[in-house]
Amino acid sequence: MTGRGRGWHGPGRGFGRPGGWQQADLPPADDAADWFGGRLPDGWFAGRPEVTVDRDEILVVGTLAAADVEGAAAEAGRISRWREETRDERIAIAREAEQRYGRKVAWGAAAGGTRLLFTTLSVPVMTRLRQPERQVLDTLVDAGVARSRSEALAWCVRLVGEHAEEWLGELREAMSAVDRLRTQGPDLPGTGADPGAGGGSDGS
Prior knowledge:
Layout: H1 32-39, E1 50-53, E2 57-63, H2 72-85, H3 87-101, E3 104-111, E4 114-118, H4 131-142, H5 149-163, H6 165-183
Parallel strand pairs: 2-3
Antiparallel strand pairs: 1-2, 3-4
Helix pairs in contact: 4-5
């Protein structure tokens, strides 16, 4: 296979299974921004879109070309019109990207000072918390900051992200560097994948 990036094992290793890709089977998506930059039609956005990737989802958000609109309501209407006009083509592009990267694709757009996301993925994250951590969440709920423990936990994650964005960015860059070095290392005997070995069915 070509164009899948290093470490990709083909759709037989998880894409057709109930629940989709397993984390160990996920193809790398470090070239997703370049892929979307080349795949999206000219004229959709003013400049390259912002592409954010995690283990579950690829979020594509672009700034719409300058339009003769002023005010939040007009900007929201402009985004809504673009959303409807591009729906079928965005669905087709998302399917291609999901086949390539093994992740769901969500979209968003910005116009002026308005930014809207369309049906982004909400993923449950299971965790165990001891009493001190639970008390933090319950305090946020009791104070009306959040409606539930799960919402309070999401609020805490957003807060950390906002105040530690520079550190998180450096951490991501460091992990990317480690990944690049790992792929440049020598192949050890017996560790390569056997092209003839059965990898399961892709469901087609």
